[in-house]
Amino acid sequence: MEKLPAKTGWLWVKEGLALFRKQPAEVSTLFLSYMFLMLALGILPIIGQLLPLILVPVFAMSFMQACRQIEEGKRVYPSLLLVSFRSPALRTLLALGVLYLLAAFAAVAVSTLVDGGAFWKAMTGPGLDPRDIEGSNLRLAMIVAALVYIPAAMAFWFAAPLIAWHKMPLGKALFYSFFAVRRAAKAFTVYGLAWLVIGVLLPATISTIVALLFNNMTVIVFILLPLSIILTVVMYCSFYPTYTAVFGKPPRDEAPVPESNDGAR
Q: Who contacts 222 (Cβ-Cβ below 8 Å, separation ≥6)?
């Protein structure tokens, strides 16, 4: 694989937006279905707090498959949310999800060296006492946790599609993903910075403008909520171009995805 130029990172964002614009309602419905399912799982005691992380690779493939179908001119249906549960790779994807969970816990655990455990309590406890925040280095702890998690994120980034589409075993998928991201480091740096600007500065700027114009919290929420959903869905759509830029189009030797009854008409 040739090294990708830094500007490729911005192209991934634009390609994600282009995919979203082809079927905005359909892919947004898929995302909202995913969110409602995660909220429902969150009701379960103990395991409900763990399942969303364990199932990340499983549902990541739902959005990757959705983008693939959009690219091929096929309609996206909410039933795609369950596509990985019918995959022979399901067990490996769940094992990858367990590694997601362990890596996240490890990164947050390391941050306790910086803030004495305030960030750990915020992530694992029912709530954070304001007294725990006073005098703690919570922001620094979040930065440390993010930096510690970066190598794991590199190994996880392409692991799910490599497992599901290329039928790689878990260890091989993690290995290939890590070094693929490392080789495209400049492109991923631009990609990450682009989403940092879009996801943080854009909503902050819009909320400030709306607050100056209306000074009404209800109006601000009414505007920012759909904006945040759209930006998140576009970001999900942009994951697919990062894969195709590195590994090419997905192989066609896997079983076809079942169409919904509406698609048969």
A: none
